[in-house]
From TrEMBL:
<comment type="function">
    <text>May play the central regulatory role in sporulation. It may be an element of the effector pathway responsible for the activation of sporulation genes in response to nutritional stress. Spo0A may act in concert with spo0H (a sigma factor) to control the expression of some genes that are critical to the sporulation process.</text>
</comment>
<dbReference type="GO" id="GO:0016787">
    <property type="term" value="F:hydrolase activity"/>
</dbReference>
<dbReference type="Pfam" id="PF00072">
    <property type="entry name" value="Response_reg"/>
</dbReference>
<protein>
    <recommendedName>
        <fullName>Stage 0 sporulation protein A homolog</fullName>
    </recommendedName>
</protein>
<dbReference type="InterPro" id="IPR001789">
    <property type="entry name" value="Sig_transdc_resp-reg_receiver"/>
</dbReference>
<dbReference type="InterPro" id="IPR006674">
    <property type="entry name" value="HD_domain"/>
</dbReference>
<keyword id="KW-0378">Hydrolase</keyword>
<dbReference type="InterPro" id="IPR011006">
    <property type="entry name" value="CheY-like_superfamily"/>
</dbReference>
<feature type="domain" description="Response regulatory">
    <location>
        <begin position="1"/>
        <end position="81"/>
    </location>
</feature>
<feature type="domain" description="HD-GYP">
    <location>
        <begin position="89"/>
        <end position="284"/>
    </location>
</feature>
<dbReference type="Pfam" id="PF13487">
    <property type="entry name" value="HD_5"/>
</dbReference>
<dbReference type="InterPro" id="IPR003607">
    <property type="entry name" value="HD/PDEase_dom"/>
</dbReference>
<dbReference type="GO" id="GO:0000160">
    <property type="term" value="P:phosphorelay signal transduction system"/>
</dbReference>
<feature type="domain" description="HD">
    <location>
        <begin position="111"/>
        <end position="233"/>
    </location>
</feature>
<dbReference type="InterPro" id="IPR006675">
    <property type="entry name" value="HDIG_dom"/>
</dbReference>
<dbReference type="InterPro" id="IPR052020">
    <property type="entry name" value="Cyclic_di-GMP/3'3'-cGAMP_PDE"/>
</dbReference>
<dbReference type="InterPro" id="IPR037522">
    <property type="entry name" value="HD_GYP_dom"/>
</dbReference>
Amino acid sequence: MGSFPIFLSSILCCIMLPEMTGVELLRRVKSFPRLRSIPVVLLTAMEDLESKNAGFAAGADDYVTKPFQPVELCLRLRGLLRLNEYHDRLEEVDNILKSMVAIVEAKDVYTKGHSLRVAQLVAAMGREVNLEEEKMETLYRAGLLHDIGKIVVDSGCLNKPGPLEPKEMAVIRRHPETGAVILGQMQRTAPIVPLVRDHHEHLDGSGYPAGKRGQEISFLTRLLSCADVYDALTSDRPYRKAMPRESALGIIEAEVAKGWWDLEAFRLLERVVEMEEGYGHAGVNY
């Protein structure tokens, strides 16, 4: 088993084999991480549901009943290979995006881990209101990638210990739009573009980059904004030390009163960080 070539594109396996069943062989094959994603088709003359369920449980992707037409087998394999290629491309996109986040965090030494913490926190907030799976995935991914636009911002600007000059602030404030442009190029990240673009908008219209207000800002974006602000306040920055939880929540509540953040989003944030006492930066897994 250890000598399986890594260039396998698919595996055809009969259920009835001389020394073990095809299901047992399949379990062994799937125990090797490098082989787990390879499509497997089981060939069988048996029609019983129990055998098929055992095969699928072991990791089979399809069944072909013998006797079969060669064209049928070719069509099944072609469909599985196309699906596998699609998944490989999605994984490649995800890896590229993760690398870009790592570059951003390497440039801004004070925000290492910020994106992951925001993703974990905002996902926990979404769970509190029983968001459907698709929206949960959107929230989590937006949390991971909300600051990706900072990849074009100079590290000296990101790490400056004192107040930013107006020109420097203008550069920083372009990062939501830059992130939206980057993520808008890929179908996989298209759903999170509005969240990334709008996470610094305020309900009263005083935010950036577009000065959106009220219903122009989605509920998911409002959740993301609160999670982002909370983690920023409870993390070290070049110009200040991390704040304790109570102080951070107090500041955000005051900004809710000013008309910046959504009250429901703040209450969800408050509930989650109180439940996850010491969320601080242990985080909550999605």
